Amino acid sequence: MKKSKRFLENLKKVDIAKEYELPEAVKLVKEIANAKFDETIEIHFWANIDPKKAEQQIRSPISLPHGTGKTVRVLVFAKGEKAEEAKNAGADFIGAEDYADKIAKENWFDFDVAIATPDMMRVIGKLGKVLGPRGLMPSPKSGTVTEDIDDAVKGFKLGRIEARNDKTGNIHLVVGRRSFKDAVLQENIESTIQQVLALRPSGVKGKLFKKVSLASTMSPGIRLKVAE
């Protein structure tokens, strides 16, 4: 894939062999996140896990102290009092069979997080094949199948995200935007690293991370120095 001129210019500013201390990495990633829009900043963990082993899977909600800077659209599958609870908590879409049909028949995915009460799993179980690959299927492990709808909705609205390894064993998480102040972005990153470290599977030998890097939407990666 051909790289843009701007990407190649930014690449010259990054020492690809160096592991940067966090404050320096934050300043650099913001400097090279120089597109005409407010670029998203992400952290990428190359994890020392075997994704084929169920006991080494990493999947859990974590919370960013200052949120991601993104407006999160929340869909809640609930009825009765729990539906009202979702409305009061600020959910964007609330329903049951109606939204399950909308997803299945209309290929509708205008939401970022789907939350469900346990009794709703019988309604949305058939959606696993379409929601699963997109990382949108509600699950107890991700904190999105719960009776505490108020906490879940408010949590994801305020900056709760899901730390989940992909099929290669790596984890990719949004930690903020270029417009964030350095200190705010640094606090989000430090918190993310510590929370992911706390999810270390017991069967992992040696360090959890093979490599950690910071990158914006349109920039090259910057290796981070992380103490375990």
Q: What is the topological layout?
A:
Layout: H1 5-11, H2 22-32, E1 40-47, E2 59-63, E3 74-77, H3 80-89, E4 93-95, H4 97-106, E5 113-116, H5 121-124, H6 128-131, H7 149-158, E6 160-164, E7 170-177, H8 182-197, E8 209-216, E9 222-223
Parallel strand pairs: 3-4, 3-5
Antiparallel strand pairs: 1-7, 1-8, 2-6, 8-9
Helix pairs in contact: 2-8, 3-7
Describe this structure in words.
With 228 residues, the chain is of the alpha/beta class. It folds into 2 domains: 15-67 and 160-223, 2-Layer Sandwich (Ribulose 1,5 Bisphosphate Carboxylase/Oxygenase), CATH 3.30.190.20; 74-158, Rossmann fold. It is 32% helix and 21% strand. The protein is built from 8 helices and 9 strands. The chain has helices at residues 5-11, 22-32, 80-89, 97-106, 121-124, 128-131, 149-158, 182-197; strands at residues 40-47, 59-63, 74-77, 93-95, 113-116, 160-164, 170-177, 209-216, 222-223. The strands form 3 sheets. Strands 7-1-8-9 form a 4-stranded antiparallel sheet, with helices on one face. Strands 4-3-5 form a 3-stranded parallel sheet, sandwiched between helices. The protein has a two-stranded antiparallel ribbon with strand order 2-6. The radius of gyration is 19 Å and the shape is globular. The two termini are 35 Å apart. The mean pLDDT is 93.
